[in-house]
Structures are given as C-alpha cells and as structure tokens.
Amino acid sequence: MAKITYIENGGREHAVEVKTGLTVMEGAIRNNVPGIDADCGGACACATCHVYVEATGKPSAMEESMLDFAEEVEPNSRLSCQIRVSDALDGLIVRLPENQH
Ligand code: FES
Predict the structure, then answer these.
(1) Whose CA is nearest to atom 4 of ligand 1?
(2) For 55-73, what is the mean pLDDT?
C-alpha cells in the first residue's frame, strides 16, 4: 500500500491508499479521482492519464513519445498508467494538468 495524493488543477486534494502492483492511473480510477480518463485502459496509447510527479524515475521511450500528444508537458510529466505503485512510492504527490478535470 502507498498513500498517494492526487491534486486537481483547482487545488482539490484526494489522498488515498493504493495497493502495491496497481498503477498510479488505476489508483485514481478506483478512487473516483476526476481528471484521469485513461481512455486506452493503461496501454500507453492515449495520454489522458497525464500527471506531474516528483521523482518516480524516467519515462520509457514509448511513454515519452506518447507524452508528445499530451498538452502542457513539463519536465516532471508522466503518464500515470506507466507508474507501478510500490511501498517506495508511499507519500507520492501527483498534480493534474489544467486541461484535465
Ligand atoms: Fe492511456 Fe495512460 S491510460 S496512456
């Protein structure tokens, strides 16, 4: 389990416990966090799960090329379906881009 705080662009916070082995995207969907649509179901093929995160490692080459389709990409942009939750991510904070709500 890891506690992950999702912060909507308007500042509303959702602090939830996410099971190890799920992805950060799945943690949002299961807890009804608005702003992560995950249209492709986690296949790294839609970029509607875009988030800004602190220190979770680098995106893969496939993820980076898919991020080109997201808007407002920043150096800490990730696709949340590509981040696997582990105990090491306990306390993770992810922020949602302005165009996702
Ligand atoms: Fe589609 Fe992440 S859910 S790229």
Answers:
(1) 44
(2) 87
